[in-house]
User: What shape does this take?
Amino acid sequence: MLGSRSPQRRELLAQIVAPGRIEVLPPASTGEQGFDGVADEPAIHQRLREIVLEKAHDVRLQLGAQRRAAGMAAVVCADTVIAGTNQDGTRCVLEQPPEENWQQTVRDWFLRFYLGRTHSAITAVHVVTGLGRVCERVVESQVTFHTGMESRLEDYLATGESRGKAGGYALQGEGGDFVERVEGSISNVIGLPLEALLEMFEELEVDVG
Assistant: This one.
């Protein structure tokens, strides 16, 4: 059971789980904790863990006790953020750009945190089986953007791809043209670290065939 509204996560999960075995049940609540006052890596990781735990609780409550105990291998929930680095060394969490004035927000992010610099894609994953066994991971990848691509930025914003994307870009889309290299899991940058998730399934003895 995938507790997510993200089509990208559904597509990624289908790379390691038989598609016929995947059900999608997003959390009923769309509200979640933000990252105000969170300015270092341990605090970002902790907040992400809290967010995905809340999502997992929400989905399990929707399922009910009978459905949890019978016929369901596991609930998978995840949350991804992009973290840039300010000039003073503190971290700045870049979630989905606000719908109002999203272009200016993403333009600022590219100029302040991305072009010619390295930022982090951080995903927390929470897996809980039908019988209540739990495993969680926080996975971080480093993404470096090319320098000298300011002239491409307005064309990219015109595509509208940034809307609804953590950090305002999609590695798997036209945003990938800006990327010089990724250190770590590429699927993590898209929204679900498959390597870590496979390890979690193995640890919990979840059959993905």
In short: The chain has a mean pLDDT of 91. The CA atoms of residues 129 and 205 lie 9 Å apart. The beta strands are 74-85, 91-94, 118-129, 134-145, 179-183.
